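Supplementary notes for students who missed Thursday's class. We covered one full example, reproduced here. Read the sequence, then the structure, then the short commentary at the end.
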Amino acid sequence: MSTVVGLTGQSGAGKTLISAVFEREGFGVINCDHVAREVTEAGSECNKELAGYFPECFDEEFVLDRRTMGQIVFADREKLGLLNSIIFRYINALIDEKINELSLCCDFILLDAPTLFEAGADSKCDVIVSVTADESLRLKRVTQRDGIDEESVKKRFSSQHSEDFFEQHSSFIIRNNGSRADSEAQALKIIKLIKEGKIGGSKG
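Structure (token representation):
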């Protein structure tokens, strides 16, 4: 069986950069943002189920309005929990399929999952790597990346795990406060340990 590494962390911390390093070093990558988009394609079973609870977020073709959904769930923890309880079932099923497919050709698999813990997908991983960064940096990155205001971003942050949580539940922490080269160097050290079998390993 392949070694599965979970990559997660705070919003805006820089997981995309770290994921690219793992991919460059030969890891098969499962991007869970892409998986989430697959399960919420227009007319999907997931969308039809969600529409029963969030009708204002869908049209007659069951196309998801992601911005409206985000505004609703990031302002209401109960509704976020409801969304997650539905969508994570579909996401986990597709992740399992993709892990099985990649295991045929890759010794090492990276599960790039912003909501790794919330989805319960950490149970699929042999090693967990979390990326963190100072809030001021993350705030700047997300407002620029997503084109939304600071208040909306802070609401999103408040619905996510703290840095302490990631430190307590991860095999490794990458602190992405410095240069790109520094963050890549941290990732390469972790990759070396994993490939040498000094941490992680097959679940058997």
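Commentary. The radius of gyration is 17 Å. Residues 71 and 179 are 32 Å apart (CA to CA). If anything here is unclear, bring it to office hours.
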